[in-house]
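Quick one - first record:
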Amino acid sequence: MVLLVGIGIGSAGNGGDSQKSAAEPGPTVTVTAKSEAGAEPAPTVTVTRTATKTAAAKAQTEKDTADTAPEGKAVFKVWGSAPSGVEITYGNDGTNLQGSRLPMTKTLTVKDDALYYQVTAQLMGGGDVHCSVTIDGKTKTGRAQGRFNICSAQLNSDFTGGFS
C-alpha cells in the first residue's frame, strides 16, 4: 500500500480588496509512506521551496525625459511618434534653429539678454509628440496629437535673471 499526501501553503484572495501584497512563496511539503505487510509505515518528508521574483514595472513619464540641464545651458527635447515627419524649431528670441528627426535633444548656452527660449514641433500628417525646454532646473513641456498639430514649450526670462 502506498500513501501519498500533499500539503500546499498558499494565500487566499482578499475578497474584493483592491490592494495586493507581495508575499514570500510558502513551502510545498510532500509526505510519502510505504506499507509493507505487518510493518509500520516509515514516512519520508520532502520539502521544496520555490522563490519567485517579480520585476518592478518601469514607469516612463514625461518627467523622465525632460528635467535636467547643465548650469547656464538650455536643453530642448522633442520625442514621440511622427510617421509622416515633424518640423522642429528651437532657440531663443534671437535664433531660429531647425530639426526634423525624433528623438531630438539640443543644448544651447543661455544668453543673459534673451527674453525667452522655446521649442515647437509641427506634425506633418499625424502622430503624437512631446516637447520640452529646460533651464536651471525649470522645465516647460507640451504635447501635440493628430494631424498637423503643433507642440510648443517656452520658458520666459523673469526680473531676477532666471527663467520661468
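second record:
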Amino acid sequence: MNTAPIPPSADEPRWLTAEEQRVWRSYIEAATLLEDHLDRQLQRDAGMPHVYYGLLVKLAESPRRRLRMTELARYAKITRSRLSHAIARLEKSGWVRRENCPSDKRGQFAVLTEEGYAVLGQTAPGHVEAVRQAVFDRLTPEQQKSLGEIMRIVAEGLQPREAGADLPWLR
C-alpha cells in the first residue's frame, strides 16, 4: 500500500497548512488591531484618522512640503478619489492647501501649511509613542529586524511592475 501524499491536481487550490493558517490569522488580527489602535490614538489626540496623518508626514518630508496629488496617492496606496476627499478634509482644517501645477493644467500639488506642520509637530510624539508601545517595545532587536525584512519582501512582491497595472492610485 502506497502512503505517499497525493499531490494536488492543477485545478486544486493550494490550501494553507495548519501552521500557515495560524500565521495568516495572527497577521490579520494584529494588522487590524494595530490599525485600529493607531486610528483611535490619532482621532483622540488630533481629530484625524491614521491615513490623514500619513499624508501630512509625507508632505512634511517632501521638498518645500509639497507633492503632486498623483505622487501622494501612490505613496498612500489609495485611489485618487479617496485622496481628493482626504485633502478636502485637510484643507477644511487649514492643514493643507492645493496649488495648480504650472506645467500641467490638470495637475495639482498638495501643500502642507504652517498650521498643518504645527499640528503634525504636536501630534507626532504621541503617535510615535503609540507605535513604540504597540510594536517595538514588544519585540527584541532581532525580531524587529526580521519583521522589517519580512514586510519588505511581502511589499516588494505585491508591487506591480508591468505598465498598465490595476493600481488604486490610477483609478
